[in-house]
Amino acid sequence: MKTLRLKLTTLALLLTLCLSAQEGKFGYIDFNSTLKLMPDYAEAEMNLQKMQADYKLEIERSKREFERQYIEFMLEQDHLSASVVAKRQKELQLLMDNNAQFRDKVQEELENARIEMLDPLKKKLLIVISEVCTKKDLDYVIDTGTHTYLFINDKKGVDISHDVYVALGIESALPDAVTIDSGKSTVNGN
């Protein structure tokens, strides 16, 4: 008896949620594509690429230094005592380990720099999306770029891309038309 009552209560709750969800008005936008259209995004990407290039030069320099020392060791090892060979092998191993640690640290620093440079842009975009949704009296927004939706009824949903582009000052980046088809966002005219 309690199981039947629990099932009926759950069913009633789900029905209520479904009915209230149908009343909600939603918008949709491709967050990451819009982020990449922002003028500050290109500047952040250029800064990241410069950092990456600088680090790449240093990694290459360290690699060449290791290779030079390794070749030198290989050419001399037959003429060295066992203790000197062991010492040089340890030095080469240490150099190789330091290079690997440096590469790992570079990757971490680049990722942290990426987050630091893009977070303010993401926050700005979220604020603009919130403002557009408030003006359009929307209940929620779906990010079409993450493909986390199953279906969008474009007769009920509102594509807020154009309004967000205008608010960001990048309205010239708006494609000819955006259509939603079986849960996949496609752009016509591009």
What does this entry look like structurally?
With 190 residues, the protein is mostly helical. It has one domain. The chain has helices spanning 2-23, 31-37, 39-76, 82-136, 161-168, and strands at 26-29, 140-143, 158-159, 177-181, 184-188. The strands form 2 sheets. It has a 3-stranded parallel β-sheet, with no helix packed on it. It has a two-stranded antiparallel ribbon with strand order 4-5. Helix 4 crosses helix 5 (161-168). The longest helix has 55 residues, at 82-136. It is rod-shaped and about 85 Å long. It starts with a helix and ends with a strand. Mean pLDDT is 80; it is low at 11-19 and 177-190.
Summarize the structure.
The chain is mainly alpha-helical.
